[in-house]
Write a structure and sequence with these properties.
The relative contact order is 0.07. The chain has a 5-stranded antiparallel β-sheet with strand order 5-4-3-6-7. A 5-stranded antiparallel β-sheet has the order 10-9-8-11-12, covered by helices on one side. The termini are far apart. The protein has 5 domains: 5-62, Arc Repressor Mutant, subunit A, CATH 1.10.10.10; 66-131, Nucleic acid-binding proteins (OB fold (Dihydrolipoamide Acetyltransferase, E2P)); 136-200, OB fold (Dihydrolipoamide Acetyltransferase, E2P), CATH 2.40.50.700; 224-465 and 551-606, no CATH class; 622-706, OB fold (Dihydrolipoamide Acetyltransferase, E2P), CATH 2.40.50.140. By secondary structure, it is an alpha+beta fold. α13 runs antiparallel to α15 (517-527). 31% of the residues lie in helices and 28% in strands.
């Protein structure tokens, strides 16, 4: 029987000092027959860094010994940070370059907190590497006569990998390849590896994608047992299963997605009522096929989310499920989990129901088609979809009512344009334009928000263990700086003892058409905290709601699938959660922590491919001039986002040759020491492109002049 580690951790937490092995055995009354299981549990906790063994053989908790366990994040300039595993740690721990000679980006380490004599700030001294974060590195192979080096593509991997010539697979010079690490770095030696796969030329789009996935440790292929299980799946629309579900196949459901979408999570249906509207949001019943703790479930948890790399998707589930069996394709019966909501004419939710269902989507609509039908400007499209035109009109009405109601309660909507990168058949960027966000996007957004909020409110009222999508209010220090900035710009931010999102929403409305609108939108966004998954319901600040979760995208997000299971179990057995096995909440916490981390990984990979394509798009434009606005200000210069093609680059402070410039961080501006010239976030400028480095993902501009 596996030893219960909770008692061990509890004992060490209550101990006044680190404890010897014999004293732990005695205090916990570990029997001789259980000693082997105890040792296994003890070693597992040591490997994960949850407990620490001192040189004299005593054991204790890191938090009680001024130690921090966390993952190393290395900056390309050579220093790093330790991101604590313990969420109660208030901040990341700075690590000096000399501490990183034997450590690599992604390693999990134990570090001692100490105060720097020079800066008087808390820093980390790494005392042990708990777990290596990299076993394989992708990079450019540089071939010498008797050996070679793999130069990592990731700027966060500071060490070149030494490759003996016999371990190089005869890779040619300059090729992109993958190396497995055989020996990790020491104080005096680089890591050593062996080439395991030759990928190809750096400019090959498939190599670019594979490089980014590898860098962020995102798996593209699925294990054989997962694929075998997925391939064995069938729709199983049988009478026995139909008896358990509400049959909605005669209802006029349809999907609304982007032109290239293949995984249709949600379908919507609306009915006008005397008192208002009845809205049906049917979500793919993924949990019907992905059984808990099955190989499919374990793999989906590991991935946690689908990753979207422009024209390529790395799905959370195999395509047999994501694009076929679970996807709500038109004119095909599909199992769904439906949220039925009844709204009055003012948009108040007066009744709701949840149930397993079966639907048959009548149409596969795109955002563009919905816009065309509602505008009435394209007769051909309007005639083609005349059968659902009335439904779309009703959906627009309800969505705008819900949107206005959400705005009145203080929900924050940032008005910041996003880039849409057009890729040609060779995978190269053809154009970069402003992404369209039309009425169809707003309809689906409002309906999904309503469904997610309704599910979260229901689970919160039941007081059952669940997963919530939490967005905490801004940190007081950042909020104070933001308040000072807007005051200096001539605006008031209404704050009492606690900030309400309505105050921020009102400020955005006030500055909407003002010259400072871009500046205030950007700085407010940076003031916000990141949303995350939690088991404690702390509300969603930006949406101005006390209850929010993710329920509407189980094909591409693991937390949604878990919420489906929880809701289904509460419907099947009202007392289910009260009788859950011990440790269920701890299991949910593990899920929320992992999924929040993986979400950040996916976002980083998605940002990197966009950054790469933007640099590639600019390569042949060196020497051209552009207008743009200052989108970021740092001690080493300021970033400029171009007006027409949504590309951002740096004007380095060394390129400002007319003066010495000083950063005023709170004011988001650089000020000339002598001439007092000011370059502030949001200022319009004219710049010339001087460098576009595909390898470094960097774009450099030279300032021509400040426009206003």
């Amino acid at each position: 029987m596996e030893f219960d580690t909770k008692s061990l951790l509890s004992f060490l937490n209550e101990a006044a000092k680190p404890v010897k092995y014999a004293d732990i055995i005695k205090s916990l009354k570990v029997k001789k027959d259980d000693a082997k299981e105890f040792d296994i549990a003890l070693n597992r906790l040591l490997k994960t860094g949850e407990i620490v063994k001192l040189k004299d053989g005593r054991y204790g908790l890191p938090s009680k010994m001024n130690l921090v366990v966390g993952k190393v994040q290395v900056h390309p300039d050579g220093y790093g940070f330790i991101i604590p595993d313990d969420a109660s740690e208030e901040e990341d721990l700075y690590v000096r370059p000399r501490q990183l000679k034997e450590v690599m980006h992604g390693d999990t380490v134990i570090a001692r907190k100490q105060i720097s004599n020079r800066t008087k700030k808390t820093e980390g001294k790494i005392i042990r590497i708990v777990k290596r974060g990299n076993t394989n590195i992708i990079g450019r192979f540089e071939k010498k006569r008797k050996f070679g080096y793999l130069v990592p593509l990731s700027p966060s991997i500071l060490h070149d990998i030494y490759i003996p010539i016999e371990d190089s697979m005869d890779a040619p010079n300059g090729i992109i390849a993958t190396a497995q690490i055989k020996k990790y770095p020491t104080k005096h030696l680089n890591p050593e590896g062996v080439i395991t796969k030759v990928l190809g030329d750096i400019n090959d789009p498939s190599v670019e994608i594979e490089s980014i996935l590898h860098k962020h440790q995102i798996k593209s292929g699925f294990p054989k047992n997962v694929m075998d299980l997925a391939d064995s799946m069938t729709l199983d629309i049988g009478a026995k299963e139909l008896e358990k579900r509400v049959d909605l196949r005669e209802h006029r459901f349809f999907t609304i997605d982007g032109e290239t979408a293949k995984d249709f999570d949600d379908a919507v249906c609306i009915k006008r009522e005397k008192s208002g509207y009845k809205l049906f949001v049917a979500i793919a019943d993924v949990s019907h096929y992905v059984k808990q703790d099955s190989p499919l479930d374990i793999e989906a948890f590991t991935r946690a989310t689908s990753v979207y790399l422009l024209d390529k998707v790395v799905p959370m589930l195999p395509e047999k499920l994501s694009n076929d069996i679970c996807s709500l394709r038109p004119d095909e019966d599909r199992f769904t989990f439906t949220v039925e909501m009844e709204f009055d004419s003012l948009g108040d939710l007066v009744d709701y129901a949840f149930y397993k269902s079966v639907i048959n989507s009548k149409r596969r609509m795109t955002y563009t088609q919905v816009k065309q039908v509602l505008s009435g400007k394209n007769k051909k499209v309007a005639d083609k979809y005349a059968d659902i035109a009335g439904d779309l009109q009703a959906m627009r009405e309800l969505a705008m009512i819900l949107r206005e109601k959400r705005a009145l309660r203080g929900s924050i909507d940032f008005d910041l344009p996003e880039a849409d990168i057009i890729i040609d058949l060779r995978g190269q960027p053809e154009n970069i334009i402003k992404a369209e966000r039309n009425i169809a996007h707003k309809i689906i957004e409002e309906f999904m928000l309503a469904a997610n909020e309704t599910v979260a409110t229901h689970l919160s009222w039941l007081d059952v263990p669940s997963i919530y999508r939490v967005h905490e209010e801004p940190a007081q220090e950042k909020l104070a700086d933001f308040r000072e900035l807007v005051f200096n710009l001539g605006y008031q931010l209404k704050v009492t003892s606690k900030i309400h999102p309505k105050a921020l929403a009102q400020l955005l409305a006030e500055v909407e058409d003002a010259p400072e609108a871009m500046l205030i939108n950007r700085v407010m966004l940076r003031t916000m905290q990141q949303a995350k998954y939690m088991t404690t319901n702390q509300g969603h600040f930006a949406l101005a709601t006390s209850n929010y979760t993710h329920f509407t995208s189980p094909i591409r997000r693991y937390p949604d699938m878990v919420v489906h299971r929880i809701l289904a179990n509460t419907l099947a057995n009202k007392k289910f959660m009260k009788k859950q096995q011990a440790g269920f909440e701890a299991k949910l916490t593990k899920i929320t922590d992992h999924c929040s981390r993986q979400e950040r990984v996916a976002e980083a990979a998605e940002r990197e491919i966009i950054s790469l394509k933007k640099v590639q798009f600019m390569v042949d434009k060196v020497g051209d001039t552009f207008s743009g606005f200052i989108s970021g200000v740092t001690s080493f210069g300021f970033f400029v986002e171009l007006c027409d093609i949504f590309v951002e680059g740096l004007v380095h402070i060394s390129a400002l040759k007319d003066d010495y410039y000083q950063l005023f961080e709170k004011e988001h501006m650089l000020v000339g020491t002598n001439l007092k010239k000011i370059y502030r976030l949001g200022d319009m400028v004219s710049v010339k492109l001087v460098r576009a480095s595909v390898e470094k993902r960097e774009i450099d501009f030279e300032l021509i002049k400040k426009i206003k």
